[in-house]
């Protein structure tokens, strides 16, 4: 049996894993990244809508997203160079969020004002004037399409918040590849088709074993396995002290031609529409992506085995998505057949990620990203480096959580907010976080 060694093993080469690898390699460690898949970003990262917004429920989450956005906006600086194979691009696009029952974001807006996040409030008339392609009717609560009340007239008019300086990354898989390229320049090595099947440990972690029989010895192992990360935590035997659970949730996203007046080059926004239980964002080239905000009336499809998830969308979910979208955008013409994909979120009990150490010294986790952490990938790597450095130097991160100073604002982010042992955070209990 071949045995190799490294200072740190990162399990998973998604956008978060590559970012962790980059920052650990920058710290001078010899990093080996192992991924059972074929390429960086080929896991759930490749399915991401890659939206960058600042609309979160908790102050640390808002500040994290705001800090990370500056890294996307100066991507070459963040990477330390220009990847000759192409660079992912931050595309600016405003974020329109409707105020509706159960979604009154006044606390969040107070934070936005404090951090200098540019936004404006739109009353019903201003909403109609700025976004004439959208029906501004209030339909809450979201309903299944076979509910006769689905077709009811609205019971009022919506108001909204329009946030500027938001956007999306045009190619999420390329973003992961960019991070992998930058990590390699600091000496990191990547092994694809390399599945971790066992964890070597005694009272501390010793390394990992791969399906091909090889072992990698390391005193630091970071679990960034996306929807497989709960399985990996079980393999390591570290779940007992976690107060926050996480598990894979199936998600379907659809792509349609952007209806007139909603496209990127027509001033279209990406819209968080909790009123109808959906989000949608325009894409370059005239298309529109449509996803769900997990309204109470929709059954959530939890998946026991992430390898057992069909990548194809279902007609039922597609029809619901199409009719909800048509409700909000009356000029939309439903296509003949579904175009889209099905992937997985790794969802935490409170829809907040876990960036933390574990009960096993040397085993760390960056997981439970809950469908909303693509945007935070650049800063998540830095969070993990701060935690790894502190813990490996003997600091008790559980008792005295490490804090991180955001380079954009100089403000402090309490990394205890992402602890595996936190009290459940109060959030929207949805992908909005
Ligand atoms: C449909 C969809 C839409 C989304 N939209 C947004 C959005 O608009 N904005 C936003 O901020 N976030 C969004 N997200 C969330 C975001 O994309 C994810 O949080 C992020 O991509 C997760 O990256 P990751 O590196 O943790 O996981 P992944 O990209 O899933 O990578 C995990 C890797 O681990 C590997 N792996 C697993 N098990 C093993 C093993 N045993 N051995 C070796 N390798 C292993 C896998 O092969 C995989 O490559 C969305 C997610 C989805 C699915």
Structure, described:
The longest helix is centred in the C-terminal third of the chain and has 16 residues, at 377-392. The mean pLDDT is 96. The protein has helices at residues 15-26, 59-73, 75-79, 106-115, 124-130, 172-185, 229-236, 315-328, 377-392; strands at residues 3-5, 8-11, 31-35, 51-52, 90-92, 95-99, 119-122, 159-163, 167-169, 189-192, 196-201, 205-210, 215-217, 220-223, 246-257, 270-273, 278-283, 287-292, 340-348, 354-356, 363-367, 403-405, 412-414. It has an 8-stranded mixed β-sheet with strand order 7-8-6-16-17-18-15-19. A 6-stranded mixed β-sheet has the order 10-3-2-14-21-20, with helices on both faces. It has 9 helices and 23 strands. It has 433 residues and is an alpha/beta fold. Helices cover 23% and strands 25% of the residues. The protein folds into 2 domains: 3-87 and 171-245 and 350-418, FAD/NAD(P)-binding domain, CATH 3.50.50.60; 91-166 and 249-344, D-Amino Acid Oxidase, Chain A, domain 2. Bound molecules: flavin-adenine dinucleotide. Flavin-adenine dinucleotide binds next to helix 1, strand 3, strand 15 and strand 19.
